[in-house]
Records
---
Amino acid sequence: MKAPEFEIDDPDVNVSSLIDMVFLLLSYFIATASLMKSEADLGIRLPGMLAQAQTVDMADEQVIEIRETGRVVLNGLEYDSPDSAELPQLVQVLVRYRLASQAAKAEPMITLQPDDKTRHQRVVDVMNACARAGIKNVTFAAGGD
């Protein structure tokens, strides 16, 4: 005997109520969502260099004397010890000089004036200090003492 075959009906899915529910949820979220303000210019001014109200008389150049003993003298003041190759005090002064020159819209200039018997390494140390301070215009004096 043969088993009876059952017909399987494909169930119909009614999507119209699903579409209605999606539109209701969409309209709900649109209505309740708060609008976010887009980023805009907040009018904040960052600190920067200000133009000076009065002109400041700056020396055209600074003369660094390098003595035979290795002492480095700028504007009559001695900086660092003769054994210091890094010259941190001189670098600090030269950085301030460069910043002041830039604020006055002038080119910072350094003239090196080594003694005749000064070691060449000490002159190189001073030139490296000028480079670390960001001063590129370095010249030598015509004659030593």
---
Amino acid sequence: MRRQGGRRGSIDLVRTMGRAGRMNQKVAVSVVFVAAMFMAILDATIVNVALPTLGRHFRVPATSVDTVSIYYLVSLAVFIPASGWLGDRFGGKRILLSAIVLFTGASALCGAAQSLTELEVFRVLQGMGGGMLTPVGLAMLLRVFPPAERVRVSGILTVPTTLAPATGPVLGGLLVTEASWRWVFYVNVPIGAAALLFGLLFLEDGAQQHPGRFDVAGFALAGAGLGTLMYGVSEGPVKGWGSVPVLVTTCAGVVLLALLARVELASDQPLIDLRLFNNRLFRACNGVMILASVAFIGTLYLVTLFFQDGRGLSALGAGLSTFPEAIGVMMGAQLASRVLYPWLGPRRHIAIGLAGVTVSIGLMALIGMNTSLWWMRLLMFAMGFMMGQVFVPSQAAAFATISAQATGRASTMFNTVRQLGGAIGVAALTTVVVAVGARHAIGGRVTPNLAAYHVAFLVAAAMAAAGVLVALTIDDADAAATIPVRRRRRTRPGGSLAEAGAVGDE
């Protein structure tokens, strides 16, 4: 029996590495995608820590440096819509590696920037590359992994999605404090170079799709609409929602996106295929994702403010106190993919996960000025653990009934929704803190007003609770192809355990 088991293990190893020295594409695509995704998401959070230092270095007001983050987000939003068509037209490998080259090269240029204007231009280039990384990589993954295996993949790929935002403040604080602000950009270079080399060696060109002509009108409207809306949403908490620039850009973004919907629904070959939302499973999973992103990404940003401005921790201390969330996600994602998803199915699994997120964030509203911060760190771990029960089943189920031809467009849509949800979450919770007042005077002395953060935590919890209602609209039968069969074991008369057979979820 041992010899047979060893032989099976050798066969599995050979299959994994591929035949004739070629790596299995499931492994190759996963490695490149995880590295690229981690790099892109890390960049969005690590730079925030360096903003005060950038302001001092370039001798500009702190309010002027936020363009370094905003221009990146705007560029990201502009180029995400085109990524699906480009991947289908020119092949996933070519576009993914080109995006890695652009993102990595722009990171090096950002680190070498000699003025704020140069840095802003290079951040736009970074956004161009980052906008194509995740949608194209995800579409490649969905094509190499059959539906029944996607839940395991989601358990692995959820780690960079949630580990990167938690790692960013810690790593950023270390680099800015011990080295230079330039290293928050240079850190992408070795990661990007390794991912590029690995991809060149092991990624294979997949079968190209036939997306038809490029939808110029759709690209122009999507880029302008998402870009202006993202700018307005990002600047709203800083300049005030009543300021003319914010009002104009936000309203313009909404109008342009409404026009985009009308144009794309009338098009035979739309760049943004809104008809995908006729698919009830895809629609429900996107609804879950945007509400979960509002609550989760918004809370991650809010917690760093709470630790630093509310409780007086350093940037590094705040990052370390946030990190338990990443540990929770890693543990939760593995439990979700290996045990809970096959047992519960997506409907109950996502609903339970979001209910746990609601409770975890809601309890953060009870943390006062004298409460031990270990309670907050425990709640961060709990939130991360329960988010693992949301991201894994949502990503596994979302594409269950999407055809191979529509995978690229669906991946673009899914990532656009997630990106927009995160931006809305940060803007909404920051606005709540500003509206209530982050500071107040007590006895003639200005002190942090924790009530502002408490209200914001409750708003985030309400968003997660709304996600529970959306999750309950999911029909497990639609996602049946993604639910691995469960095996039960029975005891034979002789006392040995034997498989009784595969049993699917009812």
